[in-house]
Design goal:
By secondary structure, the chain is of the alpha/beta class. The protein has one domain (about 5-289): Protein of unknown function UPF0759 (TIM Barrel), CATH 3.20.20.410. The chain has helices at about 15-20, 30-35, 45-50, 55-65, 110-120, 125-130, 145-160, 180-190, 235-240, 245-260, 275-289; strands at about 5-10, 40-45, 70-75, 85, 100, 130-140, 165-170, 195-200, 215-220, 265-270. The protein has an 8-stranded parallel sheet with strand order 7-6-3-2-1-10-9-8. Helix 7 links the parallel strand 6 and strand 7. The longest helix has 17 residues, at about 245-260.
Length: about 290
């Protein structure tokens, strides 16, 4: 059986800080990360989706965590085709526009290439410390199964190589009918780890929880089952606490992924208060049993 690492998609969320999960002594960013890293071997950095990280920041993450701790980094929104705030771009690369949000085609080609270069370069301290797991590319609901998008997946893999990427879809066409087998075969052929998701169903961005491995590394992300998935309030969308019964049902599926891979990353993304941390601890106990 391969190694299964369990963690959460945040360690700094304001509702987590207010929940009492951290002791009063963990009163600085360094102490909180150290406290978290003593309890879980893995964390996902979600903030890098909204704004690219600074190299000094990733250096501090590397310095403040144990030797075998793993960071999964969520790719900057511009690189996954999401609308991106102009204010989130590097200052010298911001286009002259009255728009608040832009898409990749709003940048000159050289500026777009520079975003890629700076984003990946900022991860160098984690790479040097052996602490970078995967770069998570979560694509938008309009990223459907078609040739151009498959070509972009290969481009992403090549741009990031030798760093590992993982692919999360938010459009069900990748799994409709015969497309499911085609999608899994495509990802395996190109050694692209597929991200298994547990999420609310029946929405535009819903995809089924297809539990398969397409590489020697698997990633599973738990988004919860909020009935307010379309809410603009992120805490309404992700404010869902899994029951022990739900997590028990997932344990054998996670073990099966572990049997099929060298390593499986399991992330609780129900980041409201300490829901994710408590659910992650329960899942660790279930997998250990």
């Amino acid at each position: 059986m391969g190694e299964i690492l369990v963690g959460t998609a945040s360690w700094t969320d304001r509702t987590l800080l207010a929940s009492g999960w951290y002791p009063e002594t963990a009163n600085t960013p360094e102490k909180r990360l150290n406290y978290y890293a003593r309890r879980f071997p893995l964390v996902e950095v979600d903030s890098t989706y909204y704004s690219p990280p600074a190299e000094q920041t990733t250096r501090l993450w590397a310095q403040r965590t144990p030797a075998h701790f793993v960071f999964n980094i969520k790719a900057f929104s511009l690189l996954t085709g999401h609308p991106t705030k102009v204010s989130a771009l590097y200052k010298d690369l911001r286009p002259e526009t009255d728009k608040r949000n832009i898409y990749p085609d709003a940048l000159p080609p050289q500026a777009y290439e520079e975003v890629w270069t700076r984003f990946l370069s900022a991860l160098d301290p984690l790479v040097a410390a052996g602490k970078l797991g995967v770069i998570l590319f979560q694509f938008p609901p309009w990223f459907t199964i078609r040739r151009a998008n498959k070509e972009y997946l290969i481009e992403v893999r090549n741009r990031c190589s030798p760093l590992r990427v993982a692919v999360e879809f938010r459009n069900a066409t990748w799994f409709d009918g015969d497309n499911r087998a085609e999608t899994m075969e495509f990802l395996r052929r190109h050694d692209l780890p597929y991200v298994v998701v547990d999420m609310p169903q029946g929405y535009r961005s819903s995809v089924p929880p297809v539990v398969e491995a397409t590489s020697d590394l698997a990633v599973v992300r738990f988004h919860g089952h909020s009935d307010k998935w379309n809410s603009r309030d992120i805490y309404e969308r992700f404010g869902y606490e899994y029951s022990e019964r739900e997590l028990k049902d997932w344990a054998p599926r996670l073990r099966a992924l572990g049997d099929a891979t060298g390593q499986t990353h399991v992330l609780l993304n129900n980041c409201y208060a300490d829901y994710a941390q408590r659910n992650a601890s329960t899942l660790v106990d279930l997998l250990t049993d």
